[in-house]
């Protein structure tokens, strides 16, 4: 059973989560979700327990409990169905031809002497 763990302190490691969930049964996997650019924790993660019963025991035992100074939000992970809304695919061709630059009149013309 896959479990969502939210409101984690930013310094919580996967090992910390593993230790928190082990009393409830066999921990199959642990992941703390991190920002790709900075490597900083995003404050949530996932734990996979060997069975639904163990997962439910962990949810019941840890949801709302304080862990490293934060109150945990623990529940069964739901599959992401919405695909984050979109903006799919490459988007418009943009810009376009733009030939004609500013009319050919070569106003370099000499003179200009205002002299007076």
TrEMBL record:
Residues 85-116 have a biased composition (Gly residues). GO terms for molecular function: RNA binding. It holds the Pfam family RRM_1. Coiled coil: none annotated. The keyword Membrane does not apply. It comes from the Bacteria. Residues 70-116 are annotated as: Disordered. PROSITE patterns: RRM (PS50102). Residues 1-79 form the RRM domain. Keywords: RNA-binding. This is RNP-1 like RNA-binding protein.
């Amino acid at each position: 059973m896959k479990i969502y763990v939210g409101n984690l302190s930013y310094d919580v490691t996967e090992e910390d989560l593993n230790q928190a969930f082990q009393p409830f049964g066999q921990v199959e996997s642990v992941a703390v979700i991190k920002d790709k650019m900075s490597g900083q924790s995003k404050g949530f993660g996932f734990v996979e327990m060997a069975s639904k019963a163990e997962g439910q025991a962990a949810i019941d035992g840890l949801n709302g409990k304080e862990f490293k100074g934060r109150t945990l939000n623990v529940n069964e992970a739901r599959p992401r169905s919405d695909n984050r809304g979109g903006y799919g695919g490459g988007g418009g061709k943009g810009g376009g031809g733009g030939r004609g630059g500013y009319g050919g009149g070569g106003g370099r013309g000499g003179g200009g002497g205002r002299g007076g």
